[in-house]
UniProtKB/TrEMBL annotation:
One of its GO terms (cellular component) is cytoplasm. Its cofactor is pyridoxal 5'-phosphate. It comes from Mammaliicoccus stepanovicii. Pyridoxal 5'-phosphate binds at T103, T104, F131, P132, T133, D134, D212, H215, Y237, W266, T294. It is an enzyme of class 3 (hydrolase). The gene is kynU. It catalyses: L-kynurenine + H2O = anthranilate + L-alanine + H(+); 3-hydroxy-L-kynurenine + H2O = 3-hydroxyanthranilate + L-alanine + H(+). This is Kynureninase. Its EC number is 3.7.1.3. PANTHER family: KYNURENINASE (PTHR14084). GO terms for biological process: anthranilate metabolic process; L-kynurenine catabolic process; L-tryptophan catabolic process to kynurenine; NAD+ biosynthetic process; quinolinate biosynthetic process. It comes from the Bacteria. Pathway: Amino-acid degradation; L-kynurenine degradation; L-alanine and anthranilate from L-kynurenine: step 1/1; Cofactor biosynthesis; NAD(+) biosynthesis; quinolinate from L-kynurenine: step 2/3.
Length: 427
């Protein structure tokens, strides 16, 4: 889409006045002396999430064990209820989504269920740009089946280390591939892969395919009903602002409901026989059957509040502002920062860009440290990427303008040279 931006601060202020989501910012805990640009790593706390968590604590304090039976079994059904709300964000059926586990444990759960290698079809296809935990899980799963990683994990390599070539992925869908796991949005470059195209290509070749939505859910619109992948996994603490380590999400396509979960546990048992405590698993044949242990209510409660905001605002409006404000950020980078060695390394097209801007600089690490001391919270990724996420629900255009000013100042005045290149644990 063509955007008509201007380079002055007053233009940013005018954009904020016109922003139809500007009032939602008041429902988040935004600090007056800080510009938070790391919502793609950990979303800010909302007042809705706080209220939901405090309500859960009150229920625990007042009800004890009785909490499982109050409000028509609300808390016993909590994982399903939140799963239903998240299903709306990806265009899935409510019974195909459950709130459970972590991204990594859910990858293990899905692959252990669906990966049934044969003599001729035994490989798992991955890319070399995905977040490492996905690869760790894949490697672990093939080892559990008695394979060497080098023989059973097929890697599609990026030609430039920035983007994934979708045609190369399709070309790699050979007859020996049993299953594919790919990211929907790349965590470094924010590239959006064409899930529908790749899913249909996989299915046409008899290959199962799953998607990592960690940097996609809550940032881009998706409609699984149009192409029906086999599974998907995601965390809930980034754009969904469910809180640090909040319980993750798992999608299992309904065509797989008859399959027994690879990892079984008592909360995946049918409700009718769960408390009979039988020693034979009685599989609940919907996504809730892939639960293992008792739901982590305190890790789920903030997500319930956050999802209320998403239901109220709607993903179409969120995506519209996200595309506009990231385009504005890229415009300012082009106009003000290119001469200082900064470069945008994400796709410019709206359809191929996620919710953050991938800004690179040879001194990216030291610049990211200087940003923090200047009151800006960015995210750094090796080897030289400063990720900046102006989140539609709580960041403003004036904040974007100010961040660009600070980035210019840090290099123009050599401020970054005051910082060490020694890496911290979390940056």
């Amino acid at each position: 889409m063509e955007y008509n931006f201007q380079v002055d601060k007053e233009f940013a202020q005018d954009l904020d006045k016109q922003d139809k989501l500007n009032h939602i910012r008041d429902r988040f805990y935004v600090k007056d002396d800080e510009i938070y640009m790391d919502g793609n790593s950990l979303g800010l706390a909302s007042k809705d999430a706080e209220e939901s968590l405090l309500t859960m604590l009150d229920v625990w304090k007042n009800e004890g064990i009785k909490l499982w039976n109050i409000e028509q079994g609300k808390y016993y059904e909590y994982a399903r209820r939140l799963g239903k709300d998240m299903a709306g964000l990806i265009g899935a059926n409510p019974d195909e989504v459950i709130t459970v586990g972590s991204t990594t444990s859910n990858i293990h759960q899905a692959i252990s269920t669906l990966y049934k290698p044969t003599h001729d079809r035994y490989k798992i296809l991955v890319d070399d740009l995905n977040f490492p935990t996905d690869r760790y899980a894949v490697d672990s799963q093939v080892r559990l089946h008695g394979y060497e990683v080098s023989e059973a994990v097929k890697v599609v390599k990026s030609a430039d280390g920035i983007f994934i070539d979708e045609e190369a992925v399709i070309e790699a869908m050979t007859d020996d591939v049993a299953l594919i796991l790919l990211p929907t949005v790349l965590y470094r470059s924010a590239q959006v892969l064409d899930m529908e195209k790749l899913t249909k290509a996989a299915h046409a070749r008899g290959i199962l395919i799953g998607w990592d939505l960690c940097h996609a859910i809550g940032a881009i619109e998706m409609n699984f009903s149009t192409f029906e992948p086999d599974f998907a996994v995601w965390c809930t603490y980034k754009y969904l602002s469910g809180g640090p380590g909040s319980t993750a999400g798992l999608y299992i396509n309904k065509k797989h409901f008859d399959k027994s979960p690879g990892l079984t546990g008592w909360f995946g048992n049918k409700d009718e026989t769960q408390f009979q405590l039988l020693h034979e698993f009685d599989h609940q044949q919907d996504a809730s059957g892939w639960q293992i242990g008792t739901p982590n209510l305190l890790s789920m409660a903030p997500l319930a509040g956050s999802l209320n905001i998403f239901k109220e605002v709607g993903m179409s409006r969120i995506r519209e502002k996200s595309l506009h404000i990231t385009a504005y950020m890229m415009y300012l980078i082009d106009e003000k920062l290119n001469q200082y060695g900064y470069k945008v390394e994400n796709a410019r097209e709206d359809s191929r860009r996620g919710g953050h801007v991938c800004l690179t600089h040879d001194e990216g690490y030291r610049i990211s440290q200087a940003l923090r001391d200047k009151g800006v919270v960015p995210d750094y990724r090796e080897p030289n990427v400063i990720r900046l996420a102006p989140v539609a629900l709580y960041n403003t255009y004036e904040e974007v303008y100010r961040v660009i000013e600070i980035l210019e100042e840090i290099v123009k005045e050599d401020i970054y040279k005051d910082y060490s290149t020694k890496r911290h644990t979390v940056i």
